[in-house]
Amino acid sequence: MVSDERALALQLAGLDDARLAEVLTWRAVSAGVAWRDFFDAAEGLLEPASIDRALQHLPRRALADLTRLADGGDGTAPAVPADAQLLLPHGVPGAVAARVRRLRETQPTALTPPDDAPPPAATPPQEASAAERAFTATGALADLLLAAGSGSLALTTTGSVAAADRRRLQEAGIVADAAELDDLVAVAHAARLVDTGDREATVSAEGDRWLHRPTAERWEGIAAGIVGALPAGLRDVHGGIVTAAQRPDAYPLDTDWPDAAETWTRILVRWGLSTAEGAEPIWTAGLRTGGSIDAGALREHLPAEIDRVYLQADLSVIAPGPLLPDLELRLRRIAARESRAQASTYRFTGDSLDAGLTDGETAESIREFLSALSLTGIPQPLEYLLDSTAQRHGAVRVRADASRAITVVEVDDPHRREALSVDQGLRPLGLVPEGELLLTRVTRDAVAWALADARYPVTVIDDDGNPTSPRRSRRATRAAADGPARYGELIARLRAGHSTDSDEAWLERELEQAVRARAAIRVSVRMPDGSDRDLILEASGLGGGRLRGLDRSADVERTLPLRSIVRVAPA
């Protein structure tokens, strides 16, 4: 045990701060633990309770490898995570082997290796269904990012979307239930499409780029993110995704795993990485040979994207197939989507056109866009609605006055100006009347969005006097404290307490433990003539660079300088 503890301490000391933080995170070490040096850390990680917690989160293959090594088998254990620190260069520490043997007595089935039989290949109908689910999920995630793009999604302490945002997204028809919403957010996070922190999720720069990609490329990015985030227990020895039957028992000691396995299975099926029957589509088969997801194989099952729509006199838009992403994104700036499928419908309203005008569109730019997009021209009712909305839209203008570092709100109608100044919902802007103007210290774009959200017909004016698109600023998300930051104080203390002379540090630690236990120890002392002399002492004190202890064979109290002690062992 002593040699294992020392070897582990040296192994920990050799890690850089980032890797050490990953180990502490993996082993669920409290940042406030009272460890003084790496020997304390090694002692703590080799305690039975700490080892049991680590074993609980190991996949079946890792448990089987540990059992083999604990029984004296040779070879390596690649399935055992390096961050778990359950292995030493010479093999399994004795304390770990003891806990593994105890598990074999209490839960022998948990230590048997998994069956690496591959899942059956999907049939053409199964692949077609999987591709349809992947197409639907990709569209739903795009809808979610667009809905969150103007702000953020509030998260609970458990990471799920807060009730108010969940209700809003369900009412908008973007998700059917809370489970689908949480799955979409988890997948978006795995693919780095959203940034999470400070209990909110915002669309990342990668998420903005993702929205402009074709459907097949969107799906490929998500699929790669899912595969990269899969727990090790859901990948077989060849790198493929394990069968549906193996997933519930992939972490046999983790009592929380069955629920997680159900979630992962739901995600794999929803995104077409596994069929509902547990078969393997051709586009994931390459994982089993060390390859990657094959988006080309999925693309054959996806509907072709189109660049034309039908504009109807009732102000509706019919897209007979999925629109090219750039076209759809721009259409959704000026029209509300009513249904989504391979054929989608949208509708123009005064509010939707007003929102587009607020976002930087003009009546002429909208007319030019729709003329190029429509197979049926622009119906007269839509022309009337566009003209009337554009005429009304310039009634409230917002511009920045750089010379005074303020924002100016211009309102021609005195009644509307009065309404703005007393609107309780706009009190945070601190609007102050100055003649026919309203002034505020809030930034131009923030004022514009506040007015738009309050349904005022606002137009943003740039420094050259032209209408422009306001930028809705996203709250800077404060990332959850990463490992090095969270464990910074602890890691600094461990390094400060670690001696560069590991032999001397380990010797002092052994002597301190012996003194605390008043244990009998065999001490090898280097004599002046260069020879070594062994003494058996009952350790009683340590200080001032000296060890005190009772030499029972001579019945005398001896005081030995630490620099003369070369070895210590139990008597």
Question: Can you offer a commentary on this structure?
Answer:
With 571 residues, this protein is α+β, with helices and mostly antiparallel strands. It folds into 5 domains: 2-111, no CATH class; 124-299; 310-377, no CATH class; 394-468, Translation Initiation Factor Eif1 (2-Layer Sandwich); 501-570, SH3 type barrels (Roll), CATH 2.30.30. It is 43% helix and 15% strand. It contains 23 helices and 18 strands. Helix 5 packs across helix 6 (94-106). The chain is elongated and about 115 Å long.
Sum up the overall morphology in one term. Answer: elongated
Radius of gyration: 33 Å
Major beta sheet, strand line-up:
10-11-9-8-12-13
Number of helices: 23
Sheet/helix structural class: alpha+beta
Q: Which stretches are poorly predicted, pLDDT < 50 over at least 5 residues?
A: 473-481
Mean pLDDT: 86
State the separation between the terminal residues, measured CA to CA: 16 Å
Overall helicity: 40-55%
Q: How many strand elements?
A: 18
Main sheet properties: 6 strands, mixed
